[in-house]
């Protein structure tokens, strides 16, 4: 176990995203002596105004400049851990994790390239789950499985879900109620997934699992959620331990590291997984209100080398409402002078 000497510098990237902000809030609520350093390429990112220190970062597409920026920032501010709050940055950190850890000494909480590829490709996700005997919605590819379309419709029935094979959240996801709607939504398109529609919207869950370097589950929580435009606006925590345990087994088969977010609905009282995101969730800050601090668990396990036993979530309801924040202009102006590149 490592001794805590002074503050623990923690970097959070993508401070403007919902889950980047959730990570920052979790770190600031932690009982650990954490100093949060937030970065984003956009100065109007809310997380930059909540962190202890904030910097404007270069775009990750300029990998060489971005790498040097991160390396210098970690060394100058004695960063011990890096949390990624931007989906666009995941591949960069996944590829460069070992190099960054070696050159800076900071732990990078990111999944391997293989896990990210498997979760980003929704067809590969379904194949992996099926191979390990986990329940999935009936699924075919389009246009690759076009010859099976008629028999798929006959066996599955309408409505059906049409979604991009490679996509984020609910972007491009369409519910089609008949054959005409289906044909309109697949005509001339590629890389689609056509899936059985899991009808019980009242039984949709978002499940967060954190796994350490040794493959041990150190945090788990299942929340029944309600969505508006693809984002959780309400979450209920109750006696859902069996769902959390089920998803912990799923995460273990992936060889995940850090945070994994699993989406499912119940069918005949059994979890049926339709998506896995290899990152923190937009409900990270909701989980905090139920007593589950995922970033803190990872720091305790990986930076401080403490044994971490998963906490039980408090039961209750969390409602999400967007709030407006006021900041003086000098706060914004000071950000423009904190570029390191």
Automatic annotation (TrEMBL):
Please provide, in alphabetical order, the Gene Ontology terms of the cellular component aspect for this entry: cytoplasm
UniProt keywords (A-Z) are: ATP-binding, Nucleotide-binding
- Gene3D superfamilies on file: 3.40.50.20, ATP-grasp fold, A domain, ATP-grasp fold, B domain
- Listed GO MF terms: ATP binding; metal ion binding; ribosomal S6-glutamic acid ligase activity
Instruction: State the coiled-coil residue ranges.
Output: none
Q: Which residues form the ATP-grasp domain?
A: 126-303
UniProt-listed NCBIfam families: PRK12767.1-1
Q: What is this protein called?
A: ATP-grasp domain-containing protein
């Amino acid at each position: 176990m490592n001794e805590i000497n002074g503050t623990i510098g923690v970097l959070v990237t993508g401070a403007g995203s919902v889950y980047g902000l959730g990570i920052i809030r979790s770190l600031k609520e932690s009982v650990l002596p954490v100093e949060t350093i937030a970065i984003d390429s956009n100065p109007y990112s809310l997380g930059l105004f909540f962190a202890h220190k904030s910097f404007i970062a270069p775009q990750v597409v300029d990998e060489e400049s971005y790498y040097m920026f991160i390396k210098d920032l970690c060394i100058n501010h004695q960063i011990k851990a890096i949390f990624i709050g931007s989906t666009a940055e995941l591949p960069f950190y996944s590829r460069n994790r070992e190099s960054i850890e070696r050159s800076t000494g900071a732990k990078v909480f990111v999944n391997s390239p293989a896990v990210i590829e498997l979760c980003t490709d929704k067809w590969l996700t379904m194949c992996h789950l099926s191979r390990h005997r986990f329940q999935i919605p009936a699924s075919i590819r389009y246009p690759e499985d076009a010859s099976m379309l008629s028999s798929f419709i006959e066996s599955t029935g309408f409505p059906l879900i049409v979604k991009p094979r490679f996509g984020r959240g609910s972007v491009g996801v369409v519910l089609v109620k008949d054959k005409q709607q289906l044909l309109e939504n697949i005509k001339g398109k590629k890389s689609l997934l056509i899936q059985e529609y899991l009808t019980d919207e009242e039984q949709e869950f978002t499940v967060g699992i954190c796994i350490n370097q040794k493959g041990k589950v150190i945090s788990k929580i299942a929340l029944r959620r309600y969505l508006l435009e693809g984002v959780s606006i309400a979450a209920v925590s109750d006696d859902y331990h069996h769902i959390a345990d089920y998803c912990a087994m799923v995460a273990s088969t992936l060889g995940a590291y850090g945070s994994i977010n699993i989406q499912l609905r119940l069918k005949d009282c059994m979890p049926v997984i339709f998506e896995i995101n290899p990152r923190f969730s937009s409900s990270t800050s909701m989980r905090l209100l139920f007593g589950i601090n995922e970033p803190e668990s990872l720091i305790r396990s990986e930076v401080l080398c403490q044994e971490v036993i998963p906490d039980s979530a408090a039961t209750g309801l969390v409602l999400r409402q967007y709030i407006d924040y006021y900041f003086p202009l000098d706060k914004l102006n000071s950000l423009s002078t904190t570029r390191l590149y």
